[in-house]
Amino acid sequence: MNRVLVTGGAGFLGSHLCEKLLKEGNDVICVDNLFTGSKDNIRHLMTNPYFEFIRHDITEPLYVEVDEIYNLACPASPVYYQYDPIKTAKTSVIGAMNMLGLARRVHARILQASTSEVYGDPEVHPQPECYRGCVNPIGIRSCYDEGKRMAETLFFDYHRQYNLNIKVMRIFNTYGPRMHPNDGRVVSNFIVQALTGKDVTIYGDGSQTRSFCYVEDLIEGMYRLMNSEEGFTGPVNIGNPSEFTMLELAEKIIKLTKSKSKITFKELPQDDPMQRKPVIELAKRELGWEPHIALEEGLRKTIEYFKEVL
User: Fold this and answer.
1) What region, left, alpha or beta, does residue 288 occupy, with left being phi > 0 and alpha being psi -120 to 50 degrees?
2) Inter-helix orientation angle 295-309/246-257, to 10°
3) Looking at residues 114-132, what average pLDDT do you find?
């Protein structure tokens, strides 16, 4: 039985990962400072004897004995990471250093949950892992984008300098149950607005695109990456290459919720990427992974979740 640490384990992705790890027979330590995570996301796991929750901020050192570390801790939606941008940068950079230091001390394998935001507003489409990105280092999103880029740098420097066993994944837009209703992400925004009969708000003209991966598929990719051969470090894109415009997504959600909401348009925020679509050939080849849940099926499950929580 592996002892596994999940930072950000009470968050949207982290709670699903904790479930997966327990199902696979691991002893799981969930660490979260509950800034964006919630005990409600892990309440059903609390009675499991192989699950442990620690309230802790990874910008401070943590001393535990573990075999694997999944580093997911960091607010991931603009609403939250722009609330305290300096704290966001600290979580990505100092948090990564603390977790890498822990991994080095206990000889643990460590995975970094990076992001497609390292590609910025891309000039290459779709985005392969070899693309180095087009990122504004001084914009309002930079605390997150550049923080994650720096975390990747640290991971690879620890790998080169200390021969640490690292895995780096770049997560593209992910959705599903346990998303926070007010996190400002496009899927949760549209669903909440449609279910409550408010106007569905699109920023820009609706032509900008995203690729949406259902959380179950994403977690499977993350798990396979952690358990891949030691020589394979990544970075590897994990996301769904099916691309949709914001207008198409809004119309699909209005139809699925049978809402009478109208679509309205507002000004596009600074540095908001116009296109986002992963090349996933590396994940297919090295991990035998690709997403299986189509957008409509995943949206139905997500809508049912939001009907319960609203």
Assistant:
1) left
2) 60
3) 95
Q: How long is the chain?
A: 310
Q: How far apart are CA 88 and CA 84, in angstroms?
A: 6
Phi-psi region of 59 (alpha: psi -120 to 50; beta: other; left: phi over 0): alpha
The average pLDDT across 122-144 equals 94
Q: How far is 220 from 223, CA to CA, in rounded Å? A: 5
Structure tokens at 292: 């299986």
Among candidate residues 144, 158, 214, 223, the one labeled active-site is 144
State the burial class of residue 231 (Cβ atoms within 10 Å of its Cβ: 0-12, 13-18, 19+): exposed
270 pLDDT above the threshold of 80? no
144 annotated active-site: yes
Tell me what the mean pLDDT of segment 160-183 comes to.
Answer: 96
